[in-house]
Structures are given as structure tokens and as C-alpha cells.
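Quick review question:
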């Protein structure tokens, strides 16, 4: 969305959040085999040199799955998906069916931005 449209939305509606809804049927087992994405845990994120990435560790827990992109042994982009009761109780404004999950957070380390890593991670 370009800056003019964003400014118009803020002026008309105040602060807002923008969500996209995607559907992708994947085989069980995690990210696509040809992607750079890996499954990550809170411990993996806490070892990151980036405070933005370390902050994502709080999204871990029951009915949560984390994915990340690692560069030189350091997680530089990560996201969390929630499903089941975890999502329904915390952010359940959109109903999920069995087998569905919601991307609740995605972050790229400041020094890794501009490399389209978040897009790669979502695609994976």
C-alpha cells in the first residue's frame, strides 16, 4: 500500500492494522523442502544477536509453531503460527477450522531488512 493511501486511512479511521488472508495446502512436516526456512524454538530465538528476534520467544508455547531463516548461524527472520485453543483464546477474531493456523507475528532483524526475508518465510 503506498504512503498516500496509508495516510488517508489514518486520517479517516485513526490507527489501523492491515491483514491478508492466505490459503496454502502443505504437506505435513513443516516448510517446503527447497526453502531456506527452518522450524525454530524459543531457545533458538533467544540466542539471536537481534533484540527484535529475541522478543519473539514469548510467542512460543502450546499450539504454536515457529519458523525462521538462519544466516551465519543466527536467526534473522522468524514467525509464529498459532492454532487450536491457543489462537481461539488469544486472538480468535477469525474462526479457524481443524488443520488451520494463523500467522500471529513475523519479524526481520533490523540489520537483515530489505532482503525480502519475510516474504520468503511466508512463502515457505
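Suggested answer, residue by residue:
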Amino acid at each position: 500500500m503506498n504512503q498516500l493511501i496509508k495516510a488517508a486511512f489514518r486520517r479517516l479511521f485513526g490507527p489501523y492494522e492491515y491483514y491478508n488472508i492466505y490459503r496454502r495446502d502443505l504437506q505435513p512436516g513443516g516448510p517446503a523442502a527447497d526453502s531456506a526456512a527452518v522450524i525454530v524454538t524459543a531457545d533458538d530465538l533467544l540466542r539471536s544477536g537481534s533484540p527484535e528476534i529475541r522478543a519473539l520467544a514469548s510467542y512460543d508455547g502450546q499450539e504454536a509453531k515457529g519458523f525462521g531463516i538462519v544466516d551465519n548461524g543466527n536467526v534473522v527472520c522468524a514467525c509464529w503460527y498459532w492454532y487450536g485453543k491457543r489462537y481461539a483464546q488469544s486472538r480468535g477474531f477469525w474462526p479457524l477450522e481443524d488443520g488451520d493456523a494463523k500467522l500471529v507475528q513475523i519479524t526481520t532483524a533490523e540489520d537483515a531488512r530489505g532482503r525480502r526475508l519475510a516474504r520468503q518465510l511466508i512463502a515457505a
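Why it works: Confidence is low (pLDDT under 50) at residues 29-34. The chain is about 30% helix and 25% strand.
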